[in-house]
Each structure stands twice: as C-alpha cells, then as structure tokens.
Specification:
Blueprint: E1 2-8, H1 14-27, E2 33-39, H2 42-47, E3 55-58, E4 61-62, E5 77-79, E6 82-84, H3 89-100
Parallel strand pairs: 1-2
Antiparallel strand pairs: 1-3, 3-4, 5-6
C-alpha cells in the first residue's frame, strides 16, 4: 500500500509534515511505503490534482478534501485555533482510518 507526502520546494512544513505522517501511520499500525514527492511544475500539480503543500496521500487519494484548485502553493488546514500549515495528528489518524474502513 502506498503513501505519499506531496510537497513543493522550500515548503516550510515539509519536514514536520513527514514526521507527522510517520507518527500517524505508526499510531494506526499501518504498514506501507511512505515516499516524498516534490512537485515542480503547474502541469504536475494539475495532473495530480495537487491542492498545496503539504498534501497527505493514501493510495493515490488526498486524505483531506479541498475545494481549492490545483496549484503549486502552500496549503492550510482548519484547526480549533484557526488555520494551520499542518493538520492535527488526530485528524490525520481519523483520515487514515476512514481510508481503511
């Protein structure tokens, strides 16, 4: 089973997002390859329906739906204190569980 963290160059949240994704997979006891994919062109963003960096992907599907258009841009996630550059660990775990249901 494949997991991807899709990012753009110089994304300030890339390292933290990778650690977060690893923690969520481990907490849910999900085994599988996790790779980082850096997008560099608008064409890649369009082809992969990329809604910003970082994006958490499971089996080719974005774990967090977004109405935003495809773009090489930073991404934000809602949180109880406003918008954040990363989802909460609990939200990522819930998204992973829903994907495996």
């Amino acid at each position: 089973m494949g997991y991807e963290l899709r990012v753009i160059a110089d994304c300030p949240n890339s390292a933290a997002a990778l650690e977060l994704f690893r923690r969520a997979l481990a907490a849910e006891e999900i085994a599988g390859d996790l790779r980082v994919v850096e997008l560099t062109t608008a064409e890649e963003a369009e082809k992969l329906d990329f809604h910003g960096s970082p994006s958490f992907i499971a089996h080719g599907l974005d774990l967090f739906s977004s109405a935003a258009g495809a773009a090489l841009a930073c991404r934000v996630y809602p949180s109880s204190s406003g918008l954040s550059g990363l989802p909460k660990l609990e939200d990522l775990q819930a998204a992973l569980r829903a994907q495996h249901a």
